[in-house]
Amino acid sequence: MLVAAGIVGAFTGHIVAACPWLYTAFAFTVHAGPDSIFMVVCLTGALELMLFVVCMALGVGLLHSRGRHVGIGLLIGWFAGVIAVLGGGTALIGLLAAPRP
Predict the structure, then answer these.
(1) Which of 26, 29, 64, 70 is deepest in the core (most CB within 10 A)?
(2) pLDDT, tens digit (0-9, with 9 covering 90-100), for 37-71
(3) Would you list the domain boundaries of the chain?
């Protein structure tokens, strides 16, 4: 149960960090009204970097203390969240924005 709590925490962080990227990708592909792509990429990159540092520091720190299960969940959740949220969210937007016949 504690591992799941760590995974949920990391996934929530990924969703918050990826919101600017996913919103801009959606607005650009659906409405053809891009925001400043450079600003959004930099902001998302900075938020993902902060999430990486926090998840790794807390995860490794908790592995060496009593919160071993939460630490494992944070580490697993960060790695899985990179693929699921960023990759899956971008792919989903691509599917939604595909031209309709």
Answers:
(1) 70
(2) 666 777 778 888 898 999 899 999 988 888 888 88
(3) 2-96
